[in-house]
Amino acid sequence: MKAASLAEWLQQGPYQAYSYSYPHKSAYRALPSRSLRAAWATEDRSALFAYIHVPFCTMRCGFCNLFAMAQPAETLVESYVDAVVRQMQAMDRALGERRFARLAVGGGTPSYLPAALLERLYVAAERILGIDLQATPSGIEVSPETVTPDRMRVCRTMGVQRVSMGIQSFAQHEVRALARPQQNAVVVEAIRQIREAGFPVLNLDLIYGIDGQTVESWLSSIESALSFAPEELYLYPLYVREQTGLGKMAIRKADQGADFRQALYAAARARLLDAGYTQVSMRMFRAPHAPRDSGPVYCCQDDGMVGFGAGARSYTRGFHYSSSYAVQRSATRSIIEDFIACDEEQFAQAGYGFELDSDEQRRRFVIQSLLTDPGLSHAAYTQRFGASVLEDLPQLQELTTLELATDEAGLFQLNAQGVSYSDTIGPWLASAAVRRLMPDAPC
Which segments constitute the Radical SAM core domain (predicted)? Predict the structure, then answer.
């Protein structure tokens, strides 16, 4: 197990694990089954986040370790959507009175679904869950090859405001290195259709650290992305995990030389700031022309997330739950088939997840706040937990000692150098218990 000192963690480099949620789903385990009505009964249900997971894609990218499968049978896809609707009906009863303040459809690739099935999901979300589609901020993830006029028309008609598309790179040799066959002409046409459909926000995802990538080729991809004036850009460092295609092919090995990801990150960050983008987190950059988000800020799980679909996570303050998790196709398919076989009574129960005691809740709040602009508010922490954050987590002071953060005017905030080490700071703040449960955890 790594030493508790942040200085020692930093010696291992800036890229150890992405802390987009805490704890990561790989820390979930089988638990005694419990009623979801009871789990949600004492939660604030006035501003919930609905997330619908579509675990299907046209291809399995070499770097992907998400819960998804490529090229499923049409009958499986239809049965899956039927099951998601059935799950919504079960959660309608389990949640009782509630209001959803945000909606996201992710994957996988949600736009893999035919337009009619996409429409069915949105209509069910409105009729069963009571989501006002036209008034609720919502987004969807797409891939270039699945963007079609009929799909985009359905999404826009259903009130979708944000479309996020993974491009990863505009350099053909780089997308080949990612085991992702993709032509720039398809990307350009997809962006044209998204813009033509009138979505207020376009997000593009790019990846750095690809085999054969240089600062010059990376900045060329940045310039190509900027030419489309996306409202948001996400820059992801490449992680190669053991069960992914790239991991199995051993394309990147520890002895292949220096890790240039930090130099690539710095070059891209400088270019985006020069273009007027604001950095929201290590990965997210927002354009000056991006519309103001009218929805509530979804941070630290004050609002609660209700997940629908195999692979979707749900969060109450003290209990995170989902279906089980897999990367390999056979295991993923088995989980999806088990999900499809569930009736409403089974969907009203949860038996796989993670119990967050008071310490884990505090760590989650700190990690989720600290790694995103504007940072960790002392007052918000005290209001939530009735204590001082520096008394509960005194190790945070090491961030200021190492000049990675400032603690001024009641706000604990990473500086530019600290933000660049988000993927080390997040894992460093995880509990020893969570790290022991995670197979890929830094140690």
Answer: 42-283
Query: What is the b/e burial string over 372-393, where b = at least 16 CB atoms within 10 angstroms of the residue's CB?
Result: beebbbeebbeebeeeebeebb
DSSP 181-199: ---HHHHHHHHHHHHHHT-
Q: Name the DSSP letter for residue 97.
A: S
Residue ranges of alpha helices (H) inside 203-316 are 215-226, 245-249, 261-274
Q: Where does the pLDDT of residue 49 fall: very low under 50, low under 70, confident under 90, or very high at 90 and above?
A: very high
| Residue position matching structure tokens 């998804």 | 68
Q: Is the pLDDT of residue 313 over 80?
A: yes
**Count of other CB atoms within 10 angstroms of residue 70:** 16
CATH number of 25-286: 3.20.20.70
* Distance (Å) of CA 372 to CA 5, 145, 406: 22, 31, 14
Helices and strands, number each (H, E), in the chain: 19, 18
Sheet holding 411-414, edge to edge: 376-377, 411-414, 405-408
Q: Quick one: DSSP state of residue 372? A: B
Cα–Cα nearest to 98, from 135, 46, 50: 46
Cα–Cα dist 318/369, whole Å: 17
**How far is residue 259 from each of residues 184, 220, 237, 265, 283, measured CA to CA in Å?**
27, 20, 11, 11, 18
Question: What is the DSSP annotation of 404-437?
Answer: SEEEETTEEEE-HHHHHTHHHHHHHHS-HHHHHH
Inform me whether the pLDDT recorded for 443 exceeds 60: no
Distance separating alpha carbons of residues 392 and 361, to the nearest angstrom: 12
Joined together, the tokens standing for residue 156 give 């826009």
Ramachandran angles phi, psi of 342, nearest 5°: -70, 145
pTM: 0.93
* Domain span(s) for CATH 3.20.20.70 in the chain: 25-286
Instruction: Say which CATH architecture domain 358-437 belongs to.
Output: Orthogonal Bundle (1.10)
pLDDT digits (tens, 9 = 90+) for 219-237: 999 999 999 999 999 999 9
Q: Which two tokens stand for residue 289?
A: 């022309």
- Cα(51)–Cα(314) distance, rounded to whole angstroms? 8
**Among residues 354, 353, 366, which one has the least CA distance to residue 407?**
366
Q: Which of 222, 220, 225 is nearest to 191 (CA)?
A: 225
Averaged pLDDT for residues 131-142 = 97
140: β partners: 105, 163
pLDDT of residue 299: 46
